[in-house]
Each structure stands twice: as C-alpha cells, then as structure tokens.
Amino acid sequence: MASPNQDKKVVIVGAGIFGVSTALWMYKRGGYSVTILDKAQILPAPDAASTDINKIIRSGDYADPTIAALNVDAVNEWRKPEWEGTYHESGVVMVAEAGSAGNAYVESSYKNVCANGIPATHCKTSSEIRAAWPAKFRGEDVYSSLSHAVASIVPSAKNSDVTPCLGEFNNKTAYLNPQSGWAEAGRAVAVGLRRITHEYGGVVRAGCEVRGLVEEQGQGGKKTVKGVELTTGEKVLGDIVIIATGAWTPALFAQDGMEQLTQVVATGQSVAKLQLTPEEAERYSKNPVIFDMKTGFYVFPPTPENIIKCAIHDKGYTYQAHEANPNSVNDEASAKTGVSVPRTVLTPGGEGGFIPLEMLKRLRQHLCEVYPELGKRDFIATRLCWYLDTPDGDWLIDWHPKKENLLFATAGCGHAFKFLPNIGREIVNKIEGTLAPALENKWRFDGRNSARDAGSDSDLRGNEHAERVAIKIEELATAHDLKADRFATPQKIGTHSRESKL
Ligand SMILES: Cc1cc2nc3c(=O)[nH]c(=O)nc-3n(C[C@H](O)[C@H](O)[C@H](O)COP(=O)(O)OP(=O)(O)OC[C@H]3O[C@@H](n4cnc5c(N)ncnc54)[C@H](O)[C@@H]3O)c2cc1C
C-alpha cells in the first residue's frame, strides 16, 4: 500500500451503492484516501435508490453472459462475513409468458446460470413452477382457481386471515435459481459505510449537497476538475471526483455552468408493502422471490420485520419540479431546464410516498395473481423509488469526455444494487486503466450501441404501446387507496399493460 503521503485524494459525491462500493475497493486496493459527500442529513439517505428494506440479488440471472459472470462473482462476495448476513439465499423464480420476448430473455438467462455451474431447475408447466414453493402453498384445499381468487377481492379480510395459496402461472415458463435471493438493502449500505469509516479511516459527510465543480482550464481545451463546491460555498478538493449521484445526476448536471447529460433519465418506479403478523410471516418465510419478466412484477418473502414488499420493474414515470424547492438545488435546476428529478419523501408535498393510482391497481392485480390471499390485504405504504436509466440498460462508468479527473459511476438502470460487493472493483479498474474491454465498451459515456446487444433487457420493460409518462400529481394514489376494499373488483390492466424486463 502506498504511504498516506502518496495517496490520491478522491471525492465521491453520493453514498449509494456506487459510491460506497468504490470507496471500499479503493481502500482494499490501496493508494487512495476517500471523502464521500452526500446531501442527505442522515445516511444511508432515506430516499436513495439503494436504501430499501430489500432488493433482489440474482446470481447469474442475466441474458448477457458478461454481466451474468460479474453477477455470480457478486454473490460469492455477498456470502462473505463482511456483509454481516444481509444476504438471504431464498432462491429466485424467473418467470415469463411462453413465447414472449421476456421468455427469450429468461431462456438465455437460464443458459448463463447453468454455464456458471448453478443447479437451476427449468419449469415448463404450471405445476413445475408451483413446485418451487413449499408444499403448503400448493394444497388444493386452500386453492381453488385463480379466477375465483381474483374475483374474491372483497373488503372483509382481517390481518389474521392469510391462508397460504399460490397462483397458477398458466401459460408461463420459468426457472428456479436456488443460489439467488435478496438482501436487506439499507442495512447492507450501512455496513459498507461503517467499514469505510471504522475499518479504513475514510471520511463520510452527510448534509453536504454538491452544486457544482471546481475547475481550472487544462490542456487541449479540456477543463481540469479540482474538486466540488457545496451549496454552503465550501470547496472540497481532490485529485479525482467521482459522480455517484444516482437519479439526481441529470439535475446536478443541468445546473448553471454544467453541461446537460442527454443519455440518462431519472424514472420513478412503484413499490408497495404489506405488514404480516409473525405467524403469517413464518408461513411465507421459505418462499422464493418471484420476478415476472412479462409484467415486471416481483414480490419478496417477508423481511425480519414481517413486511412483504412488491414492486413493478417498469418504464417508470418522469417528474419535473415546477417550483424551486428552497432545500434543493436539483429541484431548481429541474424547474429551470425540465430534466426529470426524483420526487421523494424528502420533496415538499411528496412525504406520503404515494405512487400513481394506475400502478397501485397493477400492483394489487399482480399480487392477487401470485398470492391471492395477500391480494385481499391493505397495503401499509407505497414508495416512488428512482432509477437512473440509460437507453440500453447498461451503467455509465466512464471519464467525462471534456473534463479531466471527473468520473461517472452511475445509471444503475434498476438492477445495480446486487453488485454492491464488487462494482467498486470494476470502477477502480476503470480508474487504473485495467477494466476489461467488454465492460469498458458497455459502460462508456459516448457512442454506445443504441441497437443493444442480445443480452440487454432494456426493451422488455414496456411493450410497444407503453411510453414513459410524466407524473400527474392529481393522479397519485391517496392513503384511502391503499385499503384492500378500495377496488371491489380488480381493475383490468389497461392500455399501460407493459411487457417488462427485469
Ligand atoms: C424500486 C426499485 C427497486 C429496485 N430493485 C432492485 C433489485 O431488486 N435488485 C437490484 O440489483 N437493483 C435494484 N434496484 C436498482 C438499485 O437500487 C440501483 O441501481 C442502485 O441502488 C443505484 O445506486 P446509486 O448509488 O447509483 O444511487 P442512490 O442509491 O440513489 O444514491 C445516490 C446518492 O447520491 C446522493 N446525492 C444526489 N445528489 C447529490 C448532490 N448534489 N450532492 C450530494 N449528494 C447527492 C443521494 O442523496 C444518494 O444518497 C432498484 C431500484 C429501485 C428504485
């Protein structure tokens, strides 16, 4: 390890998984001293994409063999004691409608899982898919038919009424990967932050919102980045600045004196949660995660707090701040330029975390299809969680083309969390010029392949009729809409029925 005097001073903006993993790998590699800055007053930031009760951890479940291999490596890292048991290997069922584009993705993904030596089970029929769940979920005595279950969404369910039962998965194909699962997401980020400060002596500063870069004119018309400026006016200097600001990145770069980014967009994605009793949670505790590549719907087994989360991996919604929020320069930039910026629980007016009513209806419909009895339950909360999307679904890990010493490590595209244990290693490889050419090409700033390679799941997030739309505040759900009896008959999924990618 280089002596502290020779360490490169690195400023990382953003304490989500990209920032945390990069800092960890810089200290593992040696030769760096890191300061992480985050605008949130407490960390992990309550509204960061990385802060959540759980995230799916696929193990090789990607159609792209390069990313599948990187993903298997991530899971090997997740199993290490340093992640303090935040990873739970429940198994994941990847399901899709027979003959759909999502099915082609699932088949390629299955091949990659097998190629990585994982004993996945291919399930070609409804009963083979249902066999991935404990036997009590398949009992004919508690399950009559999906249509009956869906029709029975009536207001009477009490919290203790949960009877395990499972959808039929008609016309679906799937595979079960027993080595995939889920992570306690927020706790894992907290573990990483603690290691950075306690184990390695790194600096992590909350309440530090960056509003711009400190630059000098460099050679060949390029600017040289010397650090960042906070909203307080304080300048934090470093040899390298890493932008890991997730869905806030477009708004940060839309601010005065910065160059707008056109290849990334912040999209709001819809999540809902149910509270189970300890007894109910015990009944659902041995279940796999299910991820439907046709609808984008996924649902987890219960957390240690007995909460079940479900969500839809979707094209998502954009949001343009109309009024400058005095607490956020990002909102001001969005109001001025029209770039999409996250509307979160920390945005004035967004405290309730309510999602579009259309998405709430879809969530309940899909929940009914997988766990009919849970579909009768009130949701306890919803959340709009923000992806930073690229058109091809690949991340952005590259130097800024016109500014020296400025690196982007962002654009998780809804699937980066699972790489928390190893993505930082690849980011350090990028900095040190040792990143594998295949990854370098995938994650570059300019000139990406808009035709997409066969491994991209980006197109599967919405069918050809589904366009990304702006949030309409008047169309957001209310607390009343979280009640199970709000929609006596499950709403037919309308024109926004989207074929989804994972
Ligand atoms: C609903 C949902 C479900 C998901 N499910 C999965 C899943 O199951 N599996 C999976 O692998 N991935 C999943 N993802 C994707 C994954 O969560 C993201 O790809 C990943 O967490 C992105 O990490 P990040 O570090 O880029 O961003 P974030 O975690 O959002 O972190 C960015 C940080 O930057 C800070 N910041 C922003 N602007 C500034 C500024 N100007 N100054 C200082 N700090 C700033 C923010 O406060 C924040 O803490 C999901 C995402 C969502 C939204």
UniProtKB/TrEMBL annotation:
Superkingdom: Eukaryota
SUPFAM superfamilies per UniProt: FAD/NAD(P)-binding domain
Residue ranges occupied by any FAD dependent oxidoreductase domain in the UniProt entry: 9-428
Spans traversing the lipid bilayer: 10-27
Short name of any one Pfam family annotated for the protein: DAO
Statement: the UniProt record of this protein carries the keyword Oxidoreductase: yes
Protein name, per record: FAD dependent oxidoreductase domain-containing protein
Biological source species: Naganishia liquefaciens
